[in-house]
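Re: the request from the purification team.
They wanted to know what the chain is likely to look like in 3D before they choose a buffer screen. I agreed to run a prediction and write the result into the notebook, where they can find it.
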Amino acid sequence: MSKLVTLVSEGAGKIDPISVAAYEGVGGYEGLKKAVGMTAEQVIAEVKKAKLLGRGGAAYPAGSKWEHLLHIPETPKYIVCNADEGEPGTFKDKVILGQLPLKLIEGITISGFVFGAKAGYIYVRGEYRKIQKRLIQAIENAKKAGYLGQNILGKGFDFDIHVISGAGAYVCGENSALLNSTEGKVGRPRIKPPHLAEVGLFLQPTLVNNVESLSSIPAIVLKGGDEYLRIGHPDSGGTKLICLSGHTAKPGVYEIPLGKITLRDAIYDPEMGNGLKGGKNLKFFHLGGQSGPIGPASLLDTPYSYTDLRKAGLSVGSGAIVVMDESVSIIDYLIGVTEFFIHESCGKCVPCREGNKQLISVLRKLAVPGGANETDLANLRRLVTTMTAASFCGLGQTATAALNSAWKHFREEFEANVTKTAAAAA
């Protein structure tokens, strides 16, 4: 029996992605048709029962976010989809955007109906140029079919969706920076509070959800929250799109039921990763993107769910699983991770802007035999603490997650090239 499911990915790669008729043939728009016959409160109740956790990385309960926005009286309200998939090792949103754009459009439209919004925005990473064109065509086709635009499904509901192109800044994956960029401002994070549900796009109440989160809404409405919850884990319902890359034998995107498989299944099952290239041994895996934790082979039997991974000191994050074999130096790998954060830091705050530069300085010393001493190791730990506690936004706060977890599991590699001081030797 297959361990994979097709809840969000139903039809991916099998139908014409911009054809409304083809999408309807795999159950498309049945969720919207059901939703417009419900009240906003009823739709949100199903989302809450489903225990849908945000699929972009933060894992915030979608139902709570929706309920909060519903009770804010100010209007107009906006729906914004975060499709700025800039996290290395993450390409699951690309599958939805490129192969099932109408599923995302349906989810956004249901959201618009719930909140009485008139406009929705999809902020797409700049590198997805061809996908942006496909998305725009899918929106036009949805309008022609009566699923967008004026008087949708004859319910007096008017709603339109606009596509915004990012310019390649990783920090714009942070929701408030994304909204600033959408408004034509510098893509830097905002001070919170006020929260985006209260003061978001154009200073109006705004719902910001990830591509995968919004694409899960039609199934939740159609199947009901209880059934969606049953498919997944008791603490987090439904499925997760995972992205396997690195030294895995079968890189790709796979949809799995939360809590029903382990990391070992994901990496070694023939349906999914099918082991490592060349039959090599796994040294570590990096979860959730560059800003996620690193885990050793001893944690492979951890069930893949938000709760179980958190208990093991790991996380789901974006859904990325980067697999590394025994040939990889943990220090060299962390140098690459830190180089990425140096390049992508917006420079707004000192802990992130300067902290990453100091981190890489110490890591480069640690890569050379005798190149570092115990003071360097102490400085490394101090930098991790400072950056995590004092950085302005999530980029700086989680830039050290890989390093911190690697220190826990591979400390001997950090200490291998360290020259002991005379005081320590005594």
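For the purification team: Residues 422-426 have pLDDT under 50 and may be disordered.
Please add any questions underneath this entry.
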